[in-house]
Amino acid sequence: MKQITGGCRFCGQFLTFEVPDSFDTEDLNLLSDETVKHCTCNESRDFRAMQSARNSTEDYIDRYFQGSPVAGVAKAAITPVINGDIERITIDAGLGVKLELKTSSKKFIKARYTVTKQTELES
Ligand SMILES: [Zn+2]
Description:
Number of helices: 3
Radius of gyration: 20 Å
Helix content: 40-55%
Distance between the termini: 74 Å
Order of helices and strands: EEHHHEEE
Bound molecules: zinc ion
Largest sheet: 3 strands, antiparallel
Strand content: 25-35%
Number of domains: 2
């Protein structure tokens, strides 16, 4: 491990923390991301919570649609939904399968997978 110092992109405070020896301190984006992980300001906490929401929504989408074009479209919608630029998006994957992403009043985003099964007999 080695010690590095980085400035938080949100509050500007400088923090010194440990990273693995292999950590590339020349990569400023990496350094900035790593600093945000260590800062305790509200903005960096909110940022981490949002990242976590983004990751869990991606996992949720992959649970049902991994490798399918539906996953690509749905994942592209995560950020606009979290930012409130899209209030709700529903993807109809056919055969009664739907995926809905929408803004959440309590959290960042809500995802819902539904399968509608219907049977009908006309004789
Ligand atoms: Zn900060």
